């Protein structure tokens, strides 16, 4: 039995490294898209743990997979392989361009593997001078030192001493800047197929086509960071499948485990062969518990009915948000794709995304922000229509409270 120590928000300030600033309420239980705090207050969850809880909280199929595996085998390390990891890898390769999978524990680690593979491949095949990584401003790729350096936000990467070198940041969606800059010394381009943390920014068709074309021309690898967009989030299983181009390396995490930590780097056999025995690894990567849960998640999310349901729910969100906007004139635009949506605040509301988040919390609704000017929604992919309606009602009340 866990001890019955009383846990309150003040304890966070006492015992936790202060790199987060969590809300006052402490959730203790969740079911579907509903969450309850220790006082019994109920919340509707439009945040999904930042695009993670793709089947809501405590989905029966996930609980079953976890419970079953927890009575069989928890951990081996990569000195041995295990059945859930192999089944999941097989399934993932069937769902996309990739032939090979490397398992990690998070998005940052999946991206770290992707970047190391790209550098290793270029060094093996073309020589050491081909090492430049091109990435994009406002991009986000995780918090390890390599990934934070490749991410396009200095606030996250600076102040930790010398950074990994030869990383260039260009403007997302700027075709001319990319055309001008890329060269045969470019080893890879890393990008999100829809910038999440950077403000819910979709790429133009011309941009993605040009990125692929220029990578081919200069023998550079294209790395798609699908940590936030993958696993059905945009209505395709992977976002690239809706963009008409295919990357060489893809990273996935967040919704892959639906709430259990797991990440993966996917690639072709040709590229994978450059990570030979001993070149990379992870103690927990491919952990049987994580893989068993992810397998249950992927089975449900990859079902065409689930993916079609994402598009239906997107329409409900867009309708509801437009209605709210016609009442209060607060948004300049509703953007994003599938159930990764951003409501951009208009001129009068600049900088107030966090105010909306806090006001929503007061009404019993959990939402996210993406920077200071965008309210972000990344709910469960199977959230009920009733929960969407009730959540939007709460958002309406929250905004009314800010207008008053
Ligand atoms: C969240 C996120 C990451 C980092 O994932 P972690 O699991 O927090 O390491 C990387 N890339 C993108 C696009 C993300 O949204």
Automatic annotation (TrEMBL):
InterPro entries: Ac/SucOrn_transaminase_bac, AcOrn/SuccOrn_fam, Aminotrans_3, Aminotrans_3_PPA_site, Class-III_PLP-dep_AT, PyrdxlP-dep_Trfase, PyrdxlP-dep_Trfase_major, PyrdxlP-dep_Trfase_small. Keywords: Amino-acid biosynthesis, Aminotransferase, Arginine biosynthesis, Cytoplasm, Pyridoxal phosphate, Transferase. Belongs to the class-III pyridoxal-phosphate-dependent aminotransferase family. ArgD subfamily. Its EC number is 2.6.1.11. Pathway: Amino-acid biosynthesis; L-arginine biosynthesis; N(2)-acetyl-L-ornithine from L-glutamate: step 4/4. Pfam families: Aminotran_3. May also have succinyldiaminopimelate aminotransferase activity, thus carrying out the corresponding step in lysine biosynthesis. N(2)-acetyl-L-ornithine binds at residues 143, 282. It catalyses: N(2)-acetyl-L-ornithine + 2-oxoglutarate = N-acetyl-L-glutamate 5-semialdehyde + L-glutamate. The modification N6-(pyridoxal phosphate)lysine is found at residue 254. Binds 1 pyridoxal phosphate per subunit. GO terms for molecular function: identical protein binding; N2-acetyl-L-ornithine:2-oxoglutarate 5-aminotransferase activity; pyridoxal phosphate binding. This is Acetylornithine aminotransferase. Pyridoxal 5'-phosphate binds at residues 107-108, 140, 225-228, 283. GO terms for biological process: L-arginine biosynthetic process. It comes from Vibrio marinisediminis.
């Amino acid at each position: 039995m866990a001890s019955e120590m009383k846990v309150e928000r003040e304890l966070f300030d006492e015992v936790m490294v202060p790199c987060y600033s969590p809300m006052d309420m402490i959730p203790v239980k969740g079911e579907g898209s509903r969450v309850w705090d220790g006082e019994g207050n109920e919340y509707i969850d439009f945040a999904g743990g930042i695009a993670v809880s793709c089947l809501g909280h405590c989905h029966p199929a996930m609980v079953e997979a976890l419970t079953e595996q927890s009575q069989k085998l928890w951990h081996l390390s990569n000195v041995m392989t295990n059945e859930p990891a192999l089944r999941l890898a097989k399934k993932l390769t069937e769902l996309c361009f990739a032939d090979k999978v490397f398992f990690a524990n998070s998005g940052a680690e999946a991206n770290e593997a992707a970047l190391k593979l790209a550098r290793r491949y270029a060094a093996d095949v073309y020589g050491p001078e081909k090492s430049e990584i091109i990435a994009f401003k406002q991009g986000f790729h995780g918090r390890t030192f390599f990934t934070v350096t490749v991410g396009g936000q200095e606030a996250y990467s600076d102040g930790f001493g010398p950074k990994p070198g030869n990383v260039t940041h260009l403007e997302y969606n700027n075709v001319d800047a990319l055309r001008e800059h890329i060269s045969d010394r470019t080893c890879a381009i890393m990008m999100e197929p829809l910038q999440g943390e950077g403000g819910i920014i979709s790429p133009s068709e011309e941009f993605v086509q040009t990125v692929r074309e220029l990578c081919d021309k200069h023998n550079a690898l294209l790395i798609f960071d699908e940590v936030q967009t993958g696993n059905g989030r945009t209505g395709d299983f992977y976002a690239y499948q809706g963009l008409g181009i295919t990357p060489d390396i893809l990273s996935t995490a967040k919704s892959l485990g639906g709430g259990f930590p797991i990440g993966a780097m996917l690639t072709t056999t040709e590229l994978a062969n450059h990570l030979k025995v001993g070149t990379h690894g992870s103690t927990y990567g491919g952990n049987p518990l994580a893989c068993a849960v992810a397998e249950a998640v992927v089975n449900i999310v990859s079902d065409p009915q689930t993916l079609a349901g994402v598009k239906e729910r997107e329409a409900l969100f867009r309708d509801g948000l437009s209605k709210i906007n016609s009442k209060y004139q607060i948004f300049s635009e509703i953007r994003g794709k599938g159930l990764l949506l951003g409501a951009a605040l208009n001129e009068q509301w600049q900088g107030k995304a966090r105010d909306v988040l806090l006001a929503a919390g007061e009404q019993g609704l959990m939402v996210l922000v993406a920077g200071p000017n965008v309210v972000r929604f990344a709910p469960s992919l199977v959230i009920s229509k009733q929960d969407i309606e009730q959540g939007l009602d709460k958002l309406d009340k929250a905004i009314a409270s800010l207008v008053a």
